[in-house]
Write a structure and sequence with these properties.
This protein is of the alpha+beta class and about 260 residues long. The chain has 2 domains: about 1-45 and about 65-75 and about 225-255, no CATH class; about 85-220, no CATH class. About 20% of the residues lie in helices and about 30% in strands. It is built from 2 helices and 20 strands. The chain has helices at about 1-25, 225-255, and strands spanning about 35-40, 45-50, 65-70, 70-80, 85, 95, 100-105, 110-115, 120, 125-130, 135, 145-150, 155-160, 165-170, 175, 185, 190, 200-205, 210-215, 215-220. Strands 7, 8, 11, 15 and 18 form a 5-stranded antiparallel beta sheet that branches. A hairpin with a 6-residue loop joins strand 13 (about 155-160) and strand 14 (about 165-170). The longest helix is centred in the C-terminal third of the chain and has 33 residues, at about 225-255. The radius of gyration is 27 Å and the shape is elongated. The two termini are about 15 Å apart. The model has no long low-confidence stretch (mean pLDDT about 90).
């Protein structure tokens, strides 16, 4: 009874699809979150009659007979489309309008990447993320700074108490990848490159191919709640239909056993 095992792969696929949708919906309010999409492929085929085979009288059969054995996960694609920007008014909330990711240096010196631009000051005045890891390149804000400005090109300057002209503190750099969907997610809104994503290309915001910086804004999640709810309903119905196929196969076996 092939149908029972084939339908079981369909139920597994829809369960995984629901898991993906659940994670998207759970992160609908996560800053800089990028939604995922489960992509599936059909499994191998059992060939009962090869396409183009010769019939008994020597003619070529127009079609073959191949029975499929279900579905499998082809990949999990992360969609890096732009999320809406929300005005927060905080000097250290930054967003990227366009392509690019912020660079974060962890305690081991590894560079991590994120679209979450919610930064804070540590005890030494360094810009850090929510986990306390330094922005890379490091930007240090003097303790007597009374106003910090980040321009669209990533230039960071501050007006120091007692001075009339702003003092330049540093230059933000952002990174981009040939295939950002191939990056590996670590959690905490952080990514690391992989063989699929390629190496990071760094540049100043606003230069060719790189987005610009928005001070006082944060990028929201790119999850569309209505779209995800529709997908959830479709996945639920597909799961139900596959379960009915198993039920139908069970009834057929019961009928055969009662003969």
């Amino acid at each position: 009874m092939r149908a029972m095992f084939t339908a079981a792969t369909g139920m597994d696929a829809q369960q995984l699809r629901i898991d993906t949708i659940a994670n998207n919906l759970a992160n609908v309010s996560t800053t800089g979150f990028k939604k995922s999409r489960a992509e599936f492929q059909d499994l191998f085929y059992e060939t009962l009659q090869a396409p183009g085979a010769q019939s008994a009288d020597g003619t070529t059969l127009p079609t073959g007979a191949q029975v499929g054995h279900g579905v499998k996960l082809g990949g999990m694609n992360r969609v890096f489309s732009q999320g809406t920007r929300t005005n927060t008014g905080r000097d250290f909330d930054l967003s990227i309008d366009g392509d690019g990711l912020f660079q974060i240096a962890d305690t081991g010196g590894q560079v991590l990447y994120t679209r979450d631009g919610s930064f804070h000051l540590d005890s030494d005045g360094n810009l850090v993320n929510d986990q306390g890891n330094l922005l890379d390149p490091n930007i240090q804000i003097p303790i007597d700074a009374i106003q910090v400005t980040v321009l669209q090109d990533g230039t960071v300057s501050a007006l120091i108490a007692g001075q009339t002209a702003p003092q330049q503190l540093g230059q933000l750099e952002i990174a981009r990848f040939a295939n950002p969907s191939g990056m590996r997610a670590l959690g905490n809104n952080l990514f690391v490159p992989s063989e699929s994503s390629g190496d990071a290309e760094t540049g100043t915001p606003g230069s060719t191919g790189f987005g610009t910086i928005g001070q006082g804004f944060l990028e929201s999640s790119n999850v569309n709640m209505a779209e995800e709810l529709v997908k959830m309903i479709l996945a639920q119905r597909a799961f139900e239909v596959n379960s009915r196929v198993i039920q139908a196969g069970d009834e057929m076996l019961q009928t055969a056993a009662n003969i």
